[in-house]
Amino acid sequence: MSPTTVSKPLVLVTVCLAALTINLDTTIVNIALPSLARELDADTRDLLWIVDGYNLAFAALVLAMGSLSDRFGRRPALLIGLTGFAISTGVAALVDSSGALIALRFVMGFFAALIFPTTLSIISNTFTERRERAAALGAWGAAVGMGVALGPVTGGALLQHFSWHSVFWALVPVAVLTIAMTLRFVPESRDPSVPRLDLPGLGVSIAALGTLTYTIIEAPGHGWSSGHTIAGFVAAAVLIAVFVGIERAVEHPMLDVTLFLDRRFSAASGAVTIAFFSLFGFIFLITQFFQFARDYSALGTGARILPVAICIAIASIVGGLIAPRLGSKAVVAAGLAMLGSSFLWISDIEIDSSYPATIVPQMVLMGLGLGLVSTTATESILQVLPPARAGVGSAVNDATRELGGTLGVAVIGSLFASVYGDSLASLVGDRLEPGQLAAAQESVGVADALGASVPGVTAAMQSAFIDGTTVGCLVIGSLCLLGSLAALVALPGNRYQPLGAPLEEPAPEPV
Prior knowledge:
The protein is mainly α and about 500 residues long. It has two domains: about 425 residues, Growth Hormone, Chain: A, CATH 1.20.1250; about 55 residues. The chain is built from 19 helices and no strands. Helix 4 runs antiparallel to helix 8, helix 5 packs antiparallel against helix 6 and helix 14 packs antiparallel against helix 15.
C-alpha cells in the first residue's frame, strides 16, 4: 500500500502507541527504584544499571536497527520488535535478583531499538508533505514525551496496589495490542537499496558507548580522578575516534558522519541529546527525592510528576505547528533556554519547598522547554534526508535521544552519588559503624532504613540528598543554556536549505 491508500490517522495512532510503550519503559522503572533497593538489596550502582541497561542497549543498537528496518521492511521490523519486547518484559516480571533484572533490561533495550526508529520511519513515509509531517511528528513527539514522563505516574499507580513486578507486567498487554494494530493498519514499505549492515562500525560503537557508560557509573566507587576512571575515559575517547575513522573509510557506513556537516542536522542532534540528558537525569533524581526525602508514596510521587508530562505533550504539538513558521533556530533556542532556567531554579530547592508554589512552576517550565526542543529538532533532522532513507535520520534522532538519556542517568546519577556520599559522611560519619556508613553512602534506601534506629540519620540523608541534587541540577542547567547559545549560532533560520536537499521531497514510489 502507498501512503495515499492507507488510513493515515490509524497508522499514526499505531506508531504513537508503539513509541509510547517503549518510552514508558524508559522511566516506569524509576518509580520502583526504592522498592528494588529494599526488596532486591540493590545499591545505587545496581539502580543505575537497572535504568541504564535498557537505555544503553537502546542507544547502541538504534542506528543499526534503523538501517535494517529500511532494508528488510518496516512493518515486519515493528512486529518483531514488539513481540520480543513483550516476551522479555514478561520474563523481567518473574526475576528475583538485581543481576537478572539488569540482564533483561539489556534485552528489552535491544528490541526497543528495533521499534523506535521504525515508528519514525513509517511516519516519514506516510506523511510526505512538510506541514502534514510536522503535525504528525508533533503527535509522535507528544507520545514519546508522555511515555517518558508518564512512566513514574503509571508505575506509582501500580505500586500502590501491587509489587514492583507489576511495572513490567503492565507493559505486556499494551505491546500485544500494538502488535494487533500493526497487523491491521500499518502498510509495508522498504528501501531495498540500503546496503548491508556495517558490522565493524556497529561493534566499535557498542564498545565505545559501553565503555563510556560503565566508566561514568563506576566512577563514584573508584574515584573520579583514579587511574581506573581516567583509563576508562581515555579508552572511550579512543574507541570513538576509531569509530569515526571506520565510518569515514567504509563504502557504506552505519552512520554517515558527513551528515553532521549540515548545520540543521548536527545542531538539531545536539539539542535532542541535551534535552533528553536533562529529562532522564531529572526523573532519576526526582522520583527518589519525593519518596526518600519527602516520604511520598509511589502513587503520590507519580502524580506529582504529571505537570512535566502534560507540558511536554502540549509543547510537542505546539512546536510541530510553529516550527515551519518561525524556524528551528528560534524554537529550539527558546526551548533550551526555558529548560536550562528551570534546572537552575530547581538547584535552589529545599526539603520543605512548596510543591504547588515552587515545584509545579519549575516542572511546567521544564516540560514546555523540552517539548519545544524535541519535536522541532526531530523535524529538522528528518528534513535533511528523503523519505526513502527516513530510517537513517530517525535512527540518528533516536540514538541522540537514548544517548542523552543514558548519559543523563549515568552522569547525574554518578555526580549525585559522589556528592551525597561525601556529604552524608561529613554529617553523620561519627554516629555510624564503618560498615553502616559505607552501605548508607552507597544506597539512599539503606540510609532511610537506618534513620529509624539511629538519631539524626534521616535529617542527614535529606540534607545530603539536597546537596547531590543541587550539583546535578546546576550541571544540567548550565549545559542547557550553553546548548541554547549554540542553537542560536549553529541552527539555520527558517529559509535555510542544504544543497541538494529539497524542502518538499516527492512522495516515495509504492513498494
